[in-house]
User: Fold this.
Amino acid sequence: MRAWRVTRPGPIGSAAPLWFGEEPVPVPGAGELLVRVLCCGVCRTDLHVVEGDLPVHRRGVTPGHEVVAEVVSVPDGYGGAAVGDRVGIPWLRQTCGVCRYCLRGAENLCPRSGYTGWDADGGYAEFATVPAGYALPLPAGYSDEELAPLLCAGVIGYHALVRAELPENGVLGIYGFGGSAHLTAQIALARGARVHVMTRDPAARELASALGAASVQGAADAPPEPLDSAILFAPVGELVLPAMAALDAGGTLAIAGIHLTDIPALNYQRHLFRERQIRSVTSNTRAQAREFLTLAQRYPLRVSAHRYPLERADRALLDLSLGRFDGAAVLVP
Assistant:
C-alpha cells in the first residue's frame, strides 16, 4: 500500500518532514479491525504532529485521524460493524477503561489514552487498523469526503461548544473559521444562537456569512454585542485577550486547539472579573462523538471539503498552514 510517514518533524514548507512510498498492509492486532481508507481529513493537529509542535510519540508515524473507511476484516466474536460496512476512525484510539477518569465518563482525560496518527498509524495511507471499540458508526446522507471532517473537526468543535456553555438562544463568538469552526457554527445556529465570527481570512469570512453568521469581522475585532460564550479555534494565544474582553458577565471562552502559542498577560478587571472564565478542550469521549454524529444526522450540515489525492498530502498540509482554502481538506487514495 502507499502511505505517508513523518520522518523529520519540522516546518511543512522546509526540507521534507514527510516521506511517501510503499509500505506493507498493516496486520490488525487482537480486537482490531482492518479497514480500507476511503478518505482522510487533513486536520490542524496533523500539521502540529508533522511540524513538531506536538512531541514525537511514535517515530515515523503515519498521520491522519479523520478516517472514513470500509471494513476489510473483523476480530473473532465481534458483534459490531461487518465486512463492507463504512466506519469512522477518530483521534481518540484507546483508553485504559479502569482509571478514575474513565470510570466517571471522562475517558478523554485518561492518562493512558492513545491517539490515531500520533501514537499509532493513521489514515494518510490506503489501509489502517483501529481497535473495534473505537470505530464510530457514521450518519447517512453524506459523501465520504463530507464525513471525514466530522470525525475530528466536527466532534471537537461540538465538545468545545459544550465546554463553552452557550445558553439557549445565546450569543456565540467564534475566533478563527476553518474546518472545525464552520461545522460548530452550524450546530449553534440550528439551536437558535446568534453567531459572530472573527477571522482574518477573506474566504472564511465569505463562508461564515453564507452559513448565516450575524456578523463577520477581523480576527481581533470586537463583535457588535457582548458574547455569552466564545470558542477560540485559531492556535493564536494573543486572541485570548480580545475574546475574553468581548465576553459578557458570566461568559465562558473555550479554547479548542491541542496547541496554542503563548497567552499574553491577562488583566483581571478587563478580562476575568464578573465571573468570566477560560476552559481548555482535551479530545472528546466516544459517547460525545456519537452524540455529535447523531446531531449531524438531525441537522444536515454543509461541509466545505476540498479534495486532494493521497499523494498530495504535503501540499494539502502546506495549503492548510497558509490558509489557502476555507473549510477542510480531504485526502482521497
